[in-house]
Amino acid sequence: MIEVKNLYKGFNGQQVLNGIDYTFERGKTNLIIGQSGSGKSVFLKCMLGLFKPDKGTIVYDGKPYSSFSDEEQRELRKEMGMLFQGGALFDSMNVEQNVMFPLKMFTKQHKKEMLKRVHEVLERVNLDGTGDKMPSEISGGMQKRVAIARAIVNKPKYLFCDEPNSGLDPKTATVIDNLIQELTHENDITTVLITHDMNSVLEIGERIAFLKDGVLAWKGTKDEIFKTEDEAVTDFVYSSNLFQQVREAQQKEK
Ligand SMILES: Nc1ncnc2c1ncn2[C@@H]1O[C@H](COP(=O)(O)OP(=O)(O)OP(=O)(O)O)[C@@H](O)[C@H]1O
């Protein structure tokens, strides 16, 4: 669980996050949605410890970041899995080396032990047997699954995903969404996922935080989002054809 309390962040006099209070629950896919420029990435980077908040507290499973020693900060980084747009694999490394990278960086395991874990996670994401392939030799969807395997190889408590579906066809995007959700449930991970993909909201929006101009303008679930009359949210979600179609279908059923 990650509790965010009264979080403020700005750059050069421009306020980006304006006093956010929110709790990201453990074992759930916690989505952050909102228009471009609303502060989603800055929010994520604050939780990753990449940006220092101007004000406010971020509490990781009961422990405020400000109270972490250097060693504890390093330990926390080890507990964070990251999945960035485009997968961000190392082109010069094969699949196995990519997935092994966090183990080499954060653990002192023997190679045999690391290989065992790498193959365990590759199997979990249905990529067994691809360890010696280079990223350029596999499809975009497979690259995402390698990136997911790399993000979970260290058994993270927290998984941060920034638009994990970008560049994928709708069917592959759904496979990736469901895989992230399954891993979140199986391993009781606190997953925080930024998305522009309204299909992802419908698929895995167990908890949704809607940001508008750096403020948490609405929070709820994928079912509640259809019931809300909050204009900021309705303006945003019904600009998507998919949401309009689902709403129309729901109205016909009534
Ligand atoms: N390192 C930085 N220095 C200065 N300003 C920044 C920095 N990072 C982000 N910003 C500003 O913060 C604001 C919010 O950006 P952010 O990337 O969080 O938006 P976003 O909601 O993630 O947008 P998108 O959906 O397009 O990715 C923008 O005005 C951006 O220019």
Automatic annotation (TrEMBL):
<dbReference type="Pfam" id="PF00005">
    <property type="entry name" value="ABC_tran"/>
</dbReference>
<protein>
    <submittedName>
        <fullName>ABC transporter ATP-binding protein</fullName>
    </submittedName>
</protein>
<dbReference type="InterPro" id="IPR017871">
    <property type="entry name" value="ABC_transporter-like_CS"/>
</dbReference>
<keyword id="KW-0813">Transport</keyword>
<dbReference type="InterPro" id="IPR003593">
    <property type="entry name" value="AAA+_ATPase"/>
</dbReference>
<keyword id="KW-0547">Nucleotide-binding</keyword>
<keyword id="KW-0067">ATP-binding</keyword>
<dbReference type="InterPro" id="IPR027417">
    <property type="entry name" value="P-loop_NTPase"/>
</dbReference>
<feature type="domain" description="ABC transporter">
    <location>
        <begin position="2"/>
        <end position="238"/>
    </location>
</feature>
<dbReference type="GO" id="GO:0005524">
    <property type="term" value="F:ATP binding"/>
</dbReference>
<dbReference type="InterPro" id="IPR003439">
    <property type="entry name" value="ABC_transporter-like_ATP-bd"/>
</dbReference>
